[in-house]
Amino acid sequence: MALRQGLCSEAKARLSRCLKCAHGELNNHELVSQTLNALGSLVQAQGDTAQAKDMLMSSFTLSKAAGDVVAQAGALGTLARAHATAGAPAEAHEMERYAAKKRALLDKGVREAALLEGHVRALQSC
Q1: How far apart are alpha carbons 89 and 70 in whole angstroms?
Q2: Overall number of domains in the chain
Q3: Helix, strand, coil: what percent of the chain each, to 5?
């Protein structure tokens, strides 16, 4: 357990440095969102549900602004687990329902892209 805790602490420190760099030096909102998602999952695993929810909501907000549906679905799924851990089943259900909508949207986009790719290949062969 001590080894795992040490690894979690090191991971948290590295992700915190990554967050500082992504935000301050690179001004890369997508990287900030992804880092917050990873940090949120980590601190939730360490038992800090309140901080995890804050990080995951920030991750979701940034990914929504960037149109990153994959990151939105990930943040919402992890938020659902955080709410469930905190003993808030209604909020957990709501987050999971919203995550499912985002995954469906993503699946639809993938199907449409595959169709478009098929059309492009058919036109190129003419």
Answers
A1: 24
A2: 1
A3: 90, 0, 10
Chain mean position to CA 74: 4
Amino acid code (one letter) for 38: A
Q: Which domain holds residue 85?
A: 2-124
Question: What average pLDDT does the structure give for the chain?
Answer: 87
* pLDDT tens, residue by residue, 97-124: 999 999 999 899 888 888 887 666 765 6
User: Which CATH number characterizes residue 12's domain?
Assistant: 1.25.40.10
Whether this model's pTM surpasses 0.70: yes
Contacts of 91 (CB under 8 A, 6+ apart): 83
Using a 10 angstrom Cβ sphere, with 0-12 exposed, 13-18 middle and 19 or more buried, the burial of residue 80 is buried
Radius of gyration over alpha carbons of the chain, in Å? Answer: 18
